[in-house]
Each structure stands twice: as structure tokens, then as C-alpha cells.
Amino acid sequence: MRVIGPEGDQLGVMPLHEALKMVEVQELDLVEVAPEAQPPVCRMMDYGKFRYEQRKKSHGAKKKQTFVAVKEVKMGSRTDRHDLVYKVRNIRKFIERGQRVKVSVFFRGREITHPQLGKQMLDGVFGQVQDIAKLDISPRLEGRNMSMLLTPK
Question: At 77, which CATH number?
């Protein structure tokens, strides 16, 4: 088997028992890194320390990862103007925080026969926040809901 030293230097091809003696003297572990190679490649390392460093790297990567939440604001197709102002204020707050916002209009009963009312409402909401948000997914009807997705500029 081909043996690589602890600092990455090539120690050459040697039988298994010789490699194990060398590892035992240096109080390290012999780790097979390329079993399909001809001859197989093994590396001398402190395996516990290696696993610890890998765990620390993955933990650091997870810490730097940001999770983007999608907030949803729902309203009925006959929502009053004052309530709409309140909902737009919440949408602006979410977008200023850097969050994506899904704005949904739901239709009850026979209201579904007038989807243009929901489209007008969503267009009005977008008109009020277009200075800080861009339209990611334009208004579309999904069952009894019409929704659009807003993202920060």
C-alpha cells in the first residue's frame, strides 16, 4: 500500500505491517483514503483530531448560513381600505427586514366569480410597496386563492 505521512509527504509503497509499525511509533492512525487506487493509498493522521476539525468546520458553515423566511399576509377579496392600509404597513415592515412576503387574497363562496377584484387588490398592494419591493411571482389564481410573491429590492 502507498503511505502518505502526517504532513502530506509521500513515504512510498510498503507492506501493511511496516506501515502499522510506523504509525504505532508516532502514535497516529492509519486511514485508508483511496481504496480503489492501485496500490491502495493510506494516510498517517490523528483521526480523532481530524473528525473534531471536520465537525468544527461544518458547525461554522451552519452558523454563517442564513434562513430566508417567507411571511404570508392574507386578506379577503372584500377587505376594507383601512384594514388594507394596516396589512400594507406589515408587508413594508417584513420587506425592510429582508424577508420575502407572499400576499394572498382568498375568495369565499360566489366571490370566486370575480377574480378581477382580487387582482386589483394585489396590484394596489404592489403599487404601495414597489419603492422597496419587486414582484417575484406575479398574481395568479390557485384554487380559491390569488397570490403573489414580493422580495426586497
Answer: 3.30.110.10
